Amino acid sequence: MELHEAQERVDQWIHTYGVRYFSEMTNLAQLVEEVGEVARILSRKYGDQSGKTSDASYNLADELADVLFVLICIANQTGVDLNAAFERNLEKKALRDGQRHWSNPKLFGEPEP
Ligand SMILES: [Mg+2]
Fold first, then answer.
1. How many A from CA of 38 to the centre of ligand 1?
2. pLDDT tens per residue, range 15-57
3. From ligand 1's centre to the CA of 112, what distance in Å?
4. Residue 113 belongs to a domain
5. How many domains does the chain have?
């Protein structure tokens, strides 16, 4: 699915099931909440935090999709074309960071435990 298709699918979903978009500020709070759910999973899987029984119901792929959904809502309601924006963003990063990471010795060898 292309990003513009995803934007259209989310718009259809909102108007079919969601009545209307939440306000931009509510969606910002929702985005932070969903990113927090991703952080919770990663913290317990890769970080030092131990998991709780209730954490078993969290699924990383599903939580990343929640983040994407809300991000697309914000793009739709603010008139952002994510296809065009992402293309421009990748070009910007390639120009800015073309050699930066290849000349970073910290990125070579085994990561620190
Ligand atoms: Mg979620």
1. 8
2. 999 999 999 999 999 999 999 999 999 999 999 988 888 888 8
3. 31
4. no
5. 1
Q: How many angstroms separate the alpha carbon of residue 40 from the centre of ligand 1?
A: 11
- For residue 58, report the phi and psi dihedrals to the nearest 5 degrees: -80, 140
CA of 58 to the centre of ligand 1 (A): 8
Residue 54: CB partners within 8 Å, gap ≥ 6? none
Q: Which amino acid is at 110?
A: E
Tokens of 13: 């979903």
The CATH number assigned to the domain holding 84 equals: 1.10.287.1080
Sign of CA dihedral 53, 71, 24, 73: negative
Single pTM value for the model = 0.89
Between CA 52 and CA 33 the distance in angstroms is 19
